[in-house]
Amino acid sequence: MPFDKELAALLACPKCRGPVALKPDESGFVCAACRLVYSIEDGIPNFLIDEAKPWDAPARG
Length: 61
Fold this sequence. Notes:
This protein is mostly beta strands. It contains one helix and five strands; from the N terminus they run H-E-E-E-E-E.
């Protein structure tokens, strides 16, 4: 189910309050500053800091 991109533009990282970006596959939101990924489960973003996963930035080539 595609995530509403207008809503995504309003969201912020709960840890640093900085911007988050929707992953290209729409499986979660990435905070580049905190290097965390917040998952989207059944169309609902999970912004619990304790449940976020570390983000490995894609290699530049």
